[in-house]
């Protein structure tokens, strides 16, 4: 079974542009490009990946598109546009010409939850579905109630929650996140990436058992047809090597059926992002 990594990043490191990489993440203060990822994918039988924006500029889209043109294993791009802009439809129409751009992401995790319910942002989300673009939700647990209201407004829009909404694994907090994850999963246009978990745990001391209750919740809430594996490389390196990250997910699902495993590790990402197109 060849796998698809539904969530990873590339960058030419710049201290200003990537100021979100703080001292606790110093290990990733350097360039990460396709040549760095290829051997990791090959070692772990991963056939391709989805490159997700790490910088909130349209120049990021140009950068990722240039990498796609040179690297066939990059199957799709989740880019960035100013969703609150008046010309958002014009920009989306422009990006529709690039078949590798599958959807967009707006960095919500640092904003007040109310932001995603403001008219300008709502207008931006409304503009995505006519172009068949997906939307990646990068949020913390506190954003889930507002996210539930958002996805209710757009039942035909495909959403995916990045990093299982970043629960507070290091602190062992689960109850409120669990309640809200189950609630948002009731909307069948919402999917979830099993990614980014180790970086929400204790970077040095975490064990797979610390992640298990959170994976349990996501599987129970979304089933095996709306979840997908993502490494969050290179961000994951602050908490463990690529192989360690993927093995946690592989080991968790080892007793699931072949069909279920294939869905989680490839088919679901292919379906959500239309990677074969």
Provide structural commentary.
- Helix 5 runs parallel beside helix 6 and helix 6 packs parallel to helix 7.
- The protein has one domain: TIM Barrel, CATH 3.20.20.
- Helix content is 37%, strand content 15%.
- The protein is of the alpha/beta class and 277 residues long.
- It contains nine helices and eight strands.
- Helix 3 links the parallel strand 3 and strand 4.
- The mean pLDDT is 97.
- It has an eight-stranded parallel sheet with strand order 1-2-3-4-5-6-7-8.
- The two termini are 20 Å apart.
CATH overall fold name: TIM Barrel
Give the helix tally.
9
How many beta-strand segments? 8
Strand order of the largest sheet: 1-2-3-4-5-6-7-8
Beta-strand percentage? 15-25%
Shape: globular
What name goes with the CATH superfamily?
Metal-dependent hydrolases
Mean pLDDT: 97
- SSE run: EHEHEHEHEHEHEHEHH
Q: What gap, in angstroms, lies between the N and C termini?
A: 20 Å
Structural class comes to alpha/beta
Largest sheet: 8 strands, parallel
Radius of gyration computed on alpha carbons: 17 Å
| Whole-number count of domains | 1
Tell me the helix content. 25-40%
CATH C-level class:
Alpha Beta
Task: Report the uncertain regions.
Answer: none
The second-level CATH architecture is Alpha-Beta Barrel
């Amino acid at each position: 079974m060849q796998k698809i990594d539904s969530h990873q990043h590339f960058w030419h490191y710049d201290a200003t542009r990537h100021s979100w990489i703080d001292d606790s993440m110093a290990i990733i203060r350097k360039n990460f490009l396709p040549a760095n990822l290829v051997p990791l994918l090959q070692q772990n039988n991963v056939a391709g990946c989805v490159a997700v924006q790490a910088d909130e500029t349209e120049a990021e889209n140009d950068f990722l598109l240039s990498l796609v043109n040179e690297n066939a294993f990059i199957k799709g791009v989740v880019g960035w546009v100013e969703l609150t802009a008046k010309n958002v439809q014009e920009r989306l129409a422009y990006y529709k010409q690039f078949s590798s751009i599958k959807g967009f992401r707006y960095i919500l995790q640092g904003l007040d939850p109310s932001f995603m319910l403001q008219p300008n942002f709502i207008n931006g989300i409304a503009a995505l579905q006519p172009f068949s673009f997906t939307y990646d939700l990068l949020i913390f647990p506190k954003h889930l109630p507002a996210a539930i209201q958002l996805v209710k407004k757009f039942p035909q829009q495909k959403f995916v929650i990045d990093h299982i909404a970043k629960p507070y694994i290091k602190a062992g907090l689960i109850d409120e996140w669990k309640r809200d994850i189950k609630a948002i999963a009731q909307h069948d246009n919402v999917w979830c990436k099993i990614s980014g978990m180790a970086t929400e745990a204790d970077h040095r001391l975490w064990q797979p058992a610390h992640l298990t209750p959170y994976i349990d919740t996501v599987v129970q809430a979304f089933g095996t047809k709306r979840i997908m594996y993502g490494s969050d490389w290179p961000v994951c390196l602050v908490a463990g090597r690529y192989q360690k990250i993927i093995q946690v997910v592989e080991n968790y699902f080892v007793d699931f059926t072949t069909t279920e495993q294939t869905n989680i590790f490839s088919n679901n990402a292919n379906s959500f992002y239309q990677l074969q197109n």
